[in-house]
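Example 3.2
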Amino acid sequence: MTAPLLKFTLMEEAQLAELAGELADYEARFGMASDRFFAKYTAGEMGDDADLIEWQVLYQMQQRLCESAYPPAKGIFPART
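Structure, written as tokens:
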């Protein structure tokens, strides 16, 4: 199965690249993929530290940006191992 072809503007591509870098920093810092973190955060398992709040906002921004380009693309970023 191939991933759907997403169409982004240059600005959206730049935003996605910036978000990916920021998310990667949080993933390295906390030792967990953003999708796993978000599931735990929304389940109330992560607390409400300011860094965690920022991480979940960045993750949601990434997901919404992808959904705006191609609505069925929700959750297209697999967990990193």
